[in-house]
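Annotated sample (chain length 295).
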Amino acid sequence: MRFTGVPSALILTLVLVPVAWAGPSSRTTAAVSLGDSYTSGEAGRWNGNSLTPTGDKDGTDRACLPAGATCQVDKTRVYEKGTEDGGCHRSDVAEIKSAGLPVAERIDLSCSGAQTRNIFRASQGGVGQRGEPPQADKLLPVARDRNVKLIMLSIGGNDLGFASIIDYVQLLHGIFLAPLFGTFLLGMFWRRSTGWGGFFGLFTGTATGVILYLISLDSSVGASMYRAIWAWIACVTVTIAVSLVTQPKPESELRGIVWGLTDQKEVVEVAWYKKPWVLAVIVLAMTVALNIYFF
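Output written by the structure step:
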């Protein structure tokens, strides 16, 4: 199944539901999440990245049951039963499950890939998704039988084609920006670069990206990053090769443009707490501390 539920990061609302909505005899408090993969916990299966395709994948695949050199995948270790294959991918680390909310039950009704039409009740034009009824229809019995204190809703990214937009941007990056970055680096830091070297390097890098795309017609993020690497390598290689056999500009024309030919300004001593390395250490320490605390 293609991952169509890229986190939309579009939180429309956090709605407090009046106690009157609950069943009259209900003492069970609950918090409910509706929406797309941003709230369903789509990526909850992964605990990092690994280049190891077998075994426990360096411990990054939470659905993996190590079996010697192989990995037996059991997605029900992460996703609710019935949502693991071609389903809504409601994981055990979804926001509603991970948040420390003072309620008795935390219920996830969201579904990976959901659009706005999957939220509304069927009587209001809503449609089901992945074999399930619209999310508002599923919410009705929950709200009737429990004292619902909070509803969290995240929706809109899939209506806008968020996944397709990301793929498109990465496709352009792999074809045009990666070789341009190579030309920029050489032009700024290598005084031997020439105009012809930059032109043919940029042309070759861009052509490499286009050709690799036409071969695969794959616009996924991974494929685009692969193209970007090869486009950059082609650009840098050709730029260096052509520059070495063409006449560079005299250094007098490169002053103030190329690193090493630019006059360095006199450094003014500042207080220790204003120095960049001190601020960098503080930010790094805060980042590490926050990651440890929220791990």
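Annotation: DSSP finds seven helices and six strands in the chain.
Annotation: Residues 52 and 68 are 14 Å apart (CA to CA).
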